[in-house]
Amino acid sequence: MVTCCGVGLLSKRCPGTIGSAFASCILFYSFSIFQLIVMFLLLFCLGTICSYQHVVINKKLSVLDPGYIVIDEVCGVLLCAIIIYCYAHELRWYSIIINFVLFRIFDITKCFGILNFEKYISKKHNALGIMLDDIHAALYASFVHIVVFYLFF
User: Fold this and answer.
1) Which tens digit of pLDDT belongs to each residue from 42-101?
2) What is the mean pLDDT of the chain?
3) Number of folded domains in the chain?
4) How many Cα neighbours within 13 Å face the side chain of 34?
5) Within a domain: residue 20?
6) Residue 23 within a domain
7) CB neighbours of 140 closer than 8 A, spacing ≥ 6?
8) Which of 50, 91, 114, 123 gives 20 to 30 Å between its CA and that of 148?
9) The pLDDT value given to residue 65
10) Three-state SS at 63
């Protein structure tokens, strides 16, 4: 479940990027806003629950966020899509690509407090920290996307 049908196991170097690309490819299918929200909520809840088991195993190895867990990246990309869909009332192909690029930038760099947020949450609820740092990155990516959308489209 946390590997999203094994997508997280496809690469040891960049599983998060492959997970985000997987989620972005799913978005090319026309979903309604309701379907996107339901999908996000289900994956977020299942991701938090299922990540907990992997966290318990990996805590002995001192790994806070195992790379093969990519359900958090999928949730982040879906949240970006939901926000952009609500703002623009549609999700075009270039919006999906912009979402992917911006989300990966914020997820990889963990700037603007994302890293501190992840560490703080992970101390208390590590599985929730795995999920929420990508939600945080998605919010930043969506904000930048909306600014770009407003300025250029």
Assistant:
1) 999 998 888 777 666 666 555 556 677 888 899 999 999 999 999 988 889 999 999 999
2) 83
3) 1
4) 0
5) no
6) no
7) 102, 106, 111, 112, 114
8) 114
9) 65
10) coil
- Residue 75 carries which side chain, given as an amino acid letter? C
6: left (phi over 0), alpha (psi -120 to 50) or beta: left
Total residue length of the chain: 153
Looking up tokens 């549609």, which residue turns up?
90
Instruction: Give the position of tokens 């299918």.
Output: 29
Q: Smallest Cα–Cα separation from 14: which of 80, 73, 58? A: 73
Residue carrying structure tokens 């690309």: 21
> What is the torsional sign of CA 8, 10, 12, 16?
negative
* Phi, psi of 100, deg, nearest 5: -60, -50
Dihedral sign of CA atoms 64, 65, 69, 74 in order = positive
What pLDDT does 5 receive? 67
Helix axes 126-152, 33-59, angle to 10 degrees: 140
Residue 103 lies in a domain: yes
Structure tokens at 6: 């094994």
Spatial separation of the C-alpha atoms in residues 99 and 145, rounded to whole Å: 7
Distance CA 83, CA 126 (A): 26
Task: Give the domain extent around 67.
Answer: 45-152
Give the rounded distance of the alpha carbon of 50 from its chain centre. Answer: 15
